[in-house]
From TrEMBL:
Stretches for region Disordered: 1-35
InterPro entries given in the database record: 2Fe-2S_ferredoxin-like_sf, 2Fe-2S_ferredoxin-type, Beta-grasp_dom_sf
Pfam families: Fer2
Name of protein: 2Fe-2S iron-sulfur cluster-binding protein
């Protein structure tokens, strides 16, 4: 038996003296989850409008501020010129106003709203 003292290095056999390093790998960007902001989609005549909702504003105000040319006239709920059909994002808008109930009645169930009267929650 050898009286040679054991060291950490003496127990390893055939180990390379240098660690082999793999070439640097390109780093991937951190996994950022993008949470898409919900949008409101409207149809008026044959045109479709997509709005980024802004709480407390009417659909009409929001559309015009985002360069979405919704037709309108009175802005008071009288003319129905701003009539739109909400095709997406109805959960983001307020319940119909009394004016909308009187003007639209059964059309409300089909998703029609007056853009000048409908507020965004
Ligand atoms: S613009 Fe006249 S009802 Fe909305």
């Amino acid at each position: 038996m050898s009286k040679k003292p054991l060291t950490v290095g003496s127990l390893k056999e055939n180990q390379p003296t240098q660690m082999k390093m793999s070439p640097p790998q390109p780093m991937e960007p951190p996994n950022r989850k993008t949470t898409a902001q919900p949008l409101i989609k409207l149809k008026q005549h044959d045109r479709t409008f997509t709005l980024t909702p802004h709480s407390g504003r009417t659909i009409l105000d929001c559309a015009l501020s985002q360069n979405q040319p919704i037709d309108y006239k009175c802005g008071k709920g009288n003319c129905e010129k701003c009539l739109v059909k909400v095709v997406a994002g109805s959960a983001l808008i307020s319940p119909p106003t009394a004016i909308e109930w009187s003007k639209l009645n059964k059309r409300l169930a089909e998703g029609f709203r007056l853009a000048c009267q409908t507020k965004i929650n």
